Amino acid sequence: MTNDPSRVGDMDPEEFRRQAHRLTDWIADYLAESGKYPVLARVAPGDITSALPADAPSHGEPFETIFADFEKILLPGITHWNHPAFFAYFAITGSAPGVLAEYLSAALNVQAMLWRTSPAATELEGVTLGWLRKLLGLPSAFEGVIYDTASISTLHALAAARERTVPSVRQLGLTGRDALPRLRVYCSDQTHSSIDKAVILLGLGQESLRKIPTDAEFRMRPDALAAAIAEDRSAGWLPLAVVATVGTTSSTSVDPVPQIAKLCARESIWLHVDAAYAGVAAMVPGHEWILEGAGEADSMVVNPHKWMFTPFDLSVLYCRHMNIIRAAFALTPEYLKTIEAAPVRNLMDTGIQLGRRFRALKLWMVMRHFGADGLRARLSEHMRLAQTFATWVDRSSDFERLAPVPFSVVCFRARAASPEDADRLNERVLEAVNSTGEMFISHTRLNGRYALRLAIGNLQTTEAHIARAWDLLREHTSRLRGAD
Amino acid sequence: MTNDPSRVGDMDPEEFRRQAHRLTDWIADYLAESGKYPVLARVAPGDITSALPADAPSHGEPFETIFADFEKILLPGITHWNHPAFFAYFAITGSAPGVLAEYLSAALNVQAMLWRTSPAATELEGVTLGWLRKLLGLPSAFEGVIYDTASISTLHALAAARERTVPSVRQLGLTGRDALPRLRVYCSDQTHSSIDKAVILLGLGQESLRKIPTDAEFRMRPDALAAAIAEDRSAGWLPLAVVATVGTTSSTSVDPVPQIAKLCARESIWLHVDAAYAGVAAMVPGHEWILEGAGEADSMVVNPHKWMFTPFDLSVLYCRHMNIIRAAFALTPEYLKTIEAAPVRNLMDTGIQLGRRFRALKLWMVMRHFGADGLRARLSEHMRLAQTFATWVDRSSDFERLAPVPFSVVCFRARAASPEDADRLNERVLEAVNSTGEMFISHTRLNGRYALRLAIGNLQTTEAHIARAWDLLREHTSRLRGAD
Predict the structure, then answer these.
(1) Looking at A336-350, B17-31, B80-94, B227-241, which range is the least confident one?
(2) Which residues of chain A neighbour B169 with C-beta distances below 8 Å?
(3) Global pTM?
């Protein structure tokens, strides 16, 4: 055997080359034909665990053996996010140029904590985030930084808001201080759960998060926000931040950011815009309006791993006051001090994570491979497909649409005699179509009622895929209605 | 052109196959010959930025063009972490099986937030962390979870300690509550900066972090810890957690965990063990002692991306009370509710990040490819190389060793007439050897004096590499001494 894993050193180089070429062919087939797999894994809880041994092997094994087990044991337990009929949550794409970039990044294994440990990773992050900022029409005062997830981006935004409002927090913390009032964060009742988790982690408590009611199209009501702030101030709360959303998770509604931004400016409250999913659409001609007012915000998150064809994970935080994030977190122990010929940016200063992957590489390869026009064409096509599906829903007497479709997500449901019947029916429709293996959708609740959600975001999704989804939905709805 | 990036859809499948095979050959060469590159990037600040355009390309570009720019512009700006003469910080390896796993993971693009969205990723995480737990001799009460970095693992451990001590924190937060005393966290004066960042983020403030003095071998003094806790209690502080370190960043010292664990049990204080770098060495026969007492801890972090040949990032938190982490953070909005046939683990419940990559795949491939014996052989070899280098230092009249060498890191310096002269000389030696391009070491301060640090952790590092490093160190030290 050319490859004896029990010796020291890495895998034999020629063995790596052979295995990597074999894997390349498997991946090329997979990317071309991922649609042939059942999109939702069909295993039962515990199946994978019970198929695997309870202990690590004592002796090393050839890569063929390991890969054969991947195909036999793990692959049936994969829910295929890179499948053209993955319509759940927010549909995403690990695009071909992005996959190549991740492969290269793993081989380089760069850790981008300091400029010195990663000049190319550090500077490419600045360059690519400049490109994206301009494509989205955001002001040059917005400095960008890459984190793993929107949860972490938003956490940093709210930590910065806390730092600005209570500058002593870094040194003294929040406890045991009589003079410190309760702090308040505002978002709509449609806002993502990551905001709740952030206020918990920051020690503000869920009570600090006041959820503002929304209008008939699920958009935060600025009048209700203004009233809440006024009421809180007179009750002794100190407003800390407002989180406005461009593309909410349930219905992709767009909060009225221009009005909210004006209010925040007047009240001196940090405005964070969560544009994690939909922000990228602002690069499409005719859609610039969706980020109107976001340029006035203090910070904004947008996730290229959601709807910009970049393999998971890559979230971008733009911030008008990155110096405040640095003031909150920069801290250089002796073993990380470096002396350079000119001032440099050390990425570890902009966050709580010391270690950082070379994530800018995939963003760069994706943006260059598709180009700005290519990105726009793909986003437009996804919005066209969503409109097409929405039209089918609107024209059907058996279904109804439950929210506007500004982007690539359609919320709808099968009609029934009563709202309660509709809830029960649509829950069963969801399970039925998902168990076909041909499509995967998820649900939400809008105005308290169960809603089906069809989200488009995979580069291989075509009109044939949504037509098949529509057929399956109608077929199973009829069958389930007949069975009642 | 077979690949027109301006059309909709992903890269043409056959174009992907061709490009991926070419990239595979490049990566195979790179992994075999990374030692031929200057290990530390030789670019000046701004070089990369100025070589790249300020705007994204309008039109998509062929992958060849992009990769040519990678080689021409970015590669000179790479500091080669996967280089056999990378001896700085903690040296790491993006091993061949790990690189293949990351490639596959990028193509699958699984997002492991819910069991349903990733049965294989969710269950493989449980299985591989069980394997690792047993290899390290940790108790079955330790449930494991994978995060990106030790910073995030430790943050969750301290968040859990906060949740246990102040159960109302999730709802009410820490502010505006007269009854809440100041909270205290303890660690040694050698502890990693991630602890400081965690207490800042959690709203405890840096003042809450009390750094306990260490003994002559840089280990936390349990008597000093006991005295600090007693003093704090009588001054009205509420002790929250102790962080003990197994393998500190400066000198890889090992805190006396058994005594600290007894003290924490008596005082009912959460004990978190930071074994991010050195914990894996407990699997090597004769080294079981290093995790003695860690089984009594409440939580422990160990990073396979540091010294277990797993491409960055993959940090593991083991916790005896994962239910407390869930109590702190679990929160399921309607759009993430699922119904399964049996109770399942949803990974989003164990943390602040909703999105999670399929990281267990690389851990599984690395552990299977090398096997337990192969991992032990490689860790032993790195410790043998460090002992060899330490012996050279000890035998030289021109150098002195500054700390014990329990693992794979040697702290030493060139001798000089006075401590101040030694500081200046060794700073210059560091810059001189690093600018050769043949090796990369970093520094720290021990007892206030500048110390060189040589860290071994790359699978391709052999005795020849450390011998060359020793030659370069002696040669440049002599030259710099002569120049004075």
Answers:
(1) A336-350
(2) 200, 203, 205
(3) 0.97
